[in-house]
Amino acid sequence: MSNNVLFAGSPWSAFSGPNLGYVMEQYDLYLQSPEQVEPELVTLFQQFGAPVLGGEQVAVEGVAHETGNIQKIFAAVKLADGLRSHGHLAADIYPLKDRQLDSSRIELSAYGLSEADLTAMPASLFFHNVPGSVTNGKQAIDYLRAIYTGKIAYEYAHVDDAERQWIQDKIESGKTTVSLTTEQKKELLERLTRVEDFERFIHKTFVGQKRFSIEGLDTLVVLLDEIVKKADDEKMKFLQIGMAHRGRLNVLTHVVNKPYDMMFADFAHVPNDYFFPEDGTLEISKGWTGDVKYHMGATYTKDSGMKVKLAYNPSHLEVVSPIITGSTRAAQEDTTKPGAPVHDASKALAVLVHGDAAFAGEGIVQETFNYAETTGFSTGGSIHIISNNMIGFTTEHFDSRSTRYSSDVAKGYGIPVIHVNADDPEAVVQVAHLAFEYRQTFGKDILIDLIGYRRFGHNETDDPTVTNPLTYKIVSTHPTVRVLYGEKLANEGILSLEQVKKLDEEIYAEMQASYDHVKEVGATKGHFEIEMPEEVKNEYPEVETSVSKVDLKQINEDLLAWPESFEPQNKLAKILNKRVEALETDKIDWGHAETLAFAAILRDGNPIRISGQDAQRGTFSQRHLVLHDKNNGAEFVPLHNVSDSKASFTVYNSPLTEAAIVGFEYGYNLENENALTIWEAQFGDFANMAQIMFDNFISSARSKWGQKSGLVLLLPNGIEGQGPEHSSARIERYLQLSAENNWIVANCSNAGNYFHLLRRQAKMLGTEAIRPLVIVSPKSLLRHPLAAASLEQLSEGKFQEVIEQPGLGGNAKKVERIILASGKVTIDLADRIQDGKGYENIHIIRVEQLYPFPTQKISEIIAKYPNAKEIVWVQEEPKNQGPWKYALEYLLDLADGKKVKYVGRPEMSSTSEGDMDSHKIAQAKVIDEALSK
């Protein structure tokens, strides 16, 4: 056998005879004492394994046996791997060329190699499949250098082996290269011209108006265009885009097809309704208070039927990402059949556009990545795009993050990163195709870092030279991508510079004509007034929520019919089996009533989705919607087996994340408006971490954007001696946000009332009247006998906004004090008064629905007690928290001369006492004062 042979695909195949023997000896030593082996060899052993030969032999000239030349081969392999791993550091990915590149790790001298050394080596040493144009080692290295240090840079060394090999093969085989036809290049130039002229026209026509222009990242539209085309080719039904405000108007216009005249009308303060496309391809919802134009969204239906949606989003960067993934998951699921929903990730795609500073800085980005591959929250992979203008407002990268790239966050989740120079439109097209194919192949997220710049300041009235003079000295002389690409096509002989200029003039004239039309219409037609829909102005209509006793007993039987092969944990089986007699003894506890409500809702045809930390079992072991076989851990979901069920049911234990999961569920509910979508906090104040979702979406999206939501929030609440963080759901925050019938805030004291509340919410899904439901849910009341429901209550009752305390108020003339309270404290009061004897002077009204405040119903009750002298509000929360300050205005209106009094804890900076003994003393004081003679 020749001593000069090489087997393609492995460095070991380059050796035979003494050389191979040496390497094998070193491998044996590596297995026993790796610290005694040269680091270069250790790296190769780790990467390629044992040095054994196999495959077809290929003769190679010029590879000698000496150990020194073996080291040359090792060095050459390391150089190739260095190009793959570190080529991005030297890549031409910065349009302004204002970042120092680092080629130190990919220079021949760093590996002790010369061009002659490489020329003597075979190309097959570096590739699985040698490109046809490459014949030796030098050409191989040059080829790799061109690939990895060009306008596109790749980071994929951190991904799983199969994915890494797939990406490498795609890149190095040339299969990712996109060769555009002459017509495609002309179309690309036209697209870039429209993108630029749109911004230029607005800048000149509407001087000083904010638009947060796309300029410097014009090829974002090209990138989105290509992804949309690929999704359409794959016959997807939905493509949903989430992005912040920069570039939004251009994307709305050129990707979502909002017509020029509609957009210019927004700037000219002319109602854009006059210019709405008559073909029905565009959907836009509006609220009665409205929002700035660069927060608005739209949905466009292509000829194929695929819907392209740009989500509505406020200026809070990154918060739309979980909403889009939730909406995408809903679009992927079939929830029309019993059992678990059928998930098909091929139906819809999420495209998430991030800002560079926000991507690195906002924690919700990591939250979204964290759940991306979990069972309940995966979407088969999102395509992420960093719209990278290399600055955050006025803050440079060295003050903005601690990493080299803003994209580095993604690498911790094993996500491939592709950096691309935004001034190269054809390279942008290429990375769009690769990213889409990766998502389709592996069903995982991928990130494109589109690197450009920002032509103006943070907004068009901002002067960036004040804080970033050096950058903007470069920007002021840097040609636009349209100009650069026009020159490129002229150099290729595809168009003349005169034709490029004429195209620019024609498109600009088209925009001018659209604006002239807007001015003409605006001069002759009036202004549109958008009013709150009548259905929203009114409270929920009366709906039937009771379920017959026969049906309830059948449901209960279905829920306890476990397979013969299934054996639940002994203690749990006893607890659940007590639900048989609970219907007869009127001891239906909270979890039982909830499950019966869910089953009845499924029978009505509404799917149910619940998520939250430990939602399957329930934080307080009250729910048990997913049972586990004690012998093998197999799961069984009783609600999948309810007779006559017409829809799917699922409940997921979510990651330890609040903001992103609330956003996900909100997005899911927006897309599937018929699904009862529920998020449960582990403890009520955990929702603090999701406050932005309540402020900017759930409480206000209907009035701003016309978006309907029926999302249900369960927030465990109760001052019970468990310390500040496990006490209050911060009811006051939701009440402070309450206005315009934007949602319902309830604090039930009875399991039966909770049953009907859930049923009422489900009945309203899909209607114009629907609104979110915030439920301050209990902890100790979950099993409290005074909070239990009766079978009759479920079969004949309805949701009661107020409940009068049984046993009190019998002698109306004796009642002098009327107590109003909500939630758990009403049970504390009931527990003290028992049958009411000795408390004839008191009546208690439980306020089960806090917003909208049931003024009329309370007024009717108060009117029955003519001798009442005072109205007392009792709460367990501190005076500056809880419902007191919200309720006070209503109470003053109801008082009609009566004294209005507060009973509860004093004002406190914390939500409660920190230990059980202090809690008991404070709580007893509240109850004593409320019931004092």
Automatic annotation (TrEMBL):
InterPro entries cross-referenced by the UniProt entry: 2oxoglutarate_DH_E1, 2oxoglutarate_DH_E1_bac, DH_E1, KGD_C_sf, ODO-1/KGD_C, THDP-binding, Transketolase-like_Pyr-bd
UniProt xrefs under SMART domains: Transket_pyr
Cofactor(s) required for function per UniProt: thiamine diphosphate
Gene3D superfamilies in the record: 3.40.50.12470, 3.40.50.970, Multifunctional 2-oxoglutarate metabolism enzyme, C-terminal domain (3.40.50.11610), TPP helical domain (1.10.287.1150)
Gene Ontology CC: one annotated term: cytosol
Domain Transketolase-like pyrimidine-binding: start-end pairs: 588-784
EC number(s) reported in the record: 1.2.4.2
CDD domains found in the cross-reference section: TPP_E1_OGDC_like
Catalytic activity field: N(6)-[(R)-lipoyl]-L-lysyl-[protein] + 2-oxoglutarate + H(+) = N(6)-[(R)-S(8)-succinyldihydrolipoyl]-L-lysyl-[protein] + CO2
GO molecular function term, any single one: oxoglutarate dehydrogenase (succinyl-transferring) activity
Record bears the keyword Membrane: no
Keywords: Glycolysis, Oxidoreductase, Thiamine pyrophosphate
GO biological process terms on file: glycolytic process; tricarboxylic acid cycle
Enzyme class: oxidoreductase
Domain of life of the source: Bacteria
Assembly and binders: Homodimer. Part of the 2-oxoglutarate dehydrogenase (OGDH) complex composed of E1 (2-oxoglutarate dehydrogenase), E2 (dihydrolipoamide succinyltransferase) and E3 (dihydrolipoamide dehydrogenase); the complex contains multiple copies of the three enzymatic components (E1, E2 and E3).
NCBIfam families: 2oxo_dh_E1, PRK09404.1, PRK12270.1
Function of the molecule: E1 component of the 2-oxoglutarate dehydrogenase (OGDH) complex which catalyzes the decarboxylation of 2-oxoglutarate, the first step in the conversion of 2-oxoglutarate to succinyl-CoA and CO(2).
Protein name: 2-oxoglutarate dehydrogenase E1 component
Natural source organism: Lysinibacillus halotolerans
